[in-house]
Design goal:
By secondary structure, the protein is mainly beta. The protein is 13% helix and 32% strand.
Amino acid sequence: MAAVALHKRLVISLAAVAAASALLVLPIGSEAGVPAVSGLSVTDVTPSSFTVVWLSSEPSAPSISMFMADCATPVYGAFTSARSGDSTGNLRVTVSNLSPNTLYCYQTVTTSKSTSESALLPAAPATVTTEKAAYQMTTTAGVTTPFANSLLAVPPVYQKDANASTDGVAVTLTVLDNKASHPLSTLTSGGSGAAYFNLNNLYDPATGYSLNLTGGERVMLAESHGLDGCAVEHFYKLVPDAEKIDVQTPVTCALMQDLDCSGEVNILDVLREVKWNATARGGACFNGDSDMNGDGSVDQTDVFNVSGSFGMK
């Protein structure tokens, strides 16, 4: 009898250990009824505001907790505005009325619309520092003149078919070659589909002041369809002398095989092309930039087109 009792206690103990171990490997928000959250990115950092975008596994209401540099003292007087894409799971919150050149702590809160359970991301508050000043002056040959950047129209995002909604697709803009401190972001609307980036929200990482875009900068526009599992990257160049127009449309790469607009077809372009091989319009993911012959699919013919252009400028 003693041996049987000991065996039962041992089985119970092993079961308890197994249950505890299972709990230890659960990702953030994977408990029953709690949204699973991921993909957090800080964008649009200015002297008085910043934006956070991330992804939820289900329709959720986004919010954010703000703290001073000690990550414990609450921030008072800050304003927040939030948007969510129920069909995509993409979430976006902007915090404003902050002080310039100041370190803050933040933590996103994602509350399920079906269970009211919440998940925190990151697990502990992270930090962000606002930019120094919106100083839009440039000096050339001893002469100081003002400058202003334009708005950038977001090109149409991928749709599986004509009836597919574009509501809640998260699009981020990154100025390549480390020319800007942070990317910009927007959530598209399923109505008109029109969306814009305010290029005046770009700042120089060396000075903390407004970034003067002179034209020709390489940019990457990454669209995230969230729960659809589609993430597509497009590369463009900015329009020269953009200060003369209010809204600019990004310029496509001069050579179509030069997928990242680097000025030369190289191994990175070939790898990008291979990534989209065996995809077609109408599927969950498709990048029309890699469809070299425009037949609605990316196959070996397209891959050979890019690889065969290796070294071209």
